[in-house]
């Protein structure tokens, strides 16, 4: 089992959710976060005054699935979410040793 941590622009959340659901992954944790990477923020003009911000709104989606599903998800996410521009997002992958469903005490993939 693996845990995916997906960080994307907030406006891309629904598209990521559709991709996850297309692979029968319905359990996810969603967090609104702020940060920046290679994109380095943006510059705007407001009231004739130019200002820059290097902190951007992002959405972090976390989910756990079996290895085969994770491989499919990574392929779908990189194919469908990539625009070739800075700010497309990142996917972090962590190994998950075990998962336990508290209600039943089940372990492993069956507990997902």
Structural summary, described in words:
This protein is α+β, with helices and mostly antiparallel strands. The chain has one domain: Alpha-Beta Plaits (2-Layer Sandwich), CATH 3.30.70. The protein is built from two helices and six strands; from the N terminus they run βαββββαβ. The strands form two sheets. It has a four-stranded antiparallel β-sheet. Strands 3-4 form a two-stranded antiparallel sheet. Helix 1 packs antiparallel against helix 2. It is elongated, with a radius of gyration of 17 Å.
What attributes does this structure have?
4-stranded antiparallel β-sheet, Alpha-Beta Plaits, about 110 residues, two-stranded antiparallel ribbon, single chain, alpha+beta, 2 helices
């Amino acid at each position: 089992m693996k845990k995916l941590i997906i960080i994307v622009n907030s406006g891309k959340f629904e598209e990521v959710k559709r991709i996850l659901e297309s692979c029968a992954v319905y359990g996810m944790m969603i967090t609104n976060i702020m940060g920046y990477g290679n994109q380095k923020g943006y510059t705007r003009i407001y009231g004739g005054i130019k200002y820059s911000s290097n902190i951007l709104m992002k959405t972090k989606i976390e989910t756990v699935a079996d290895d085969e599903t994770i491989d499919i998800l990574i392929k779908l996410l990189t194919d469908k979410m990539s625009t070739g521009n800075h700010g497309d997002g990142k996917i972090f992958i962590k190994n998950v040793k075990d998962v336990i469903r508290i209600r039943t005490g089940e372990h492993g993939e069956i507990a997902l």
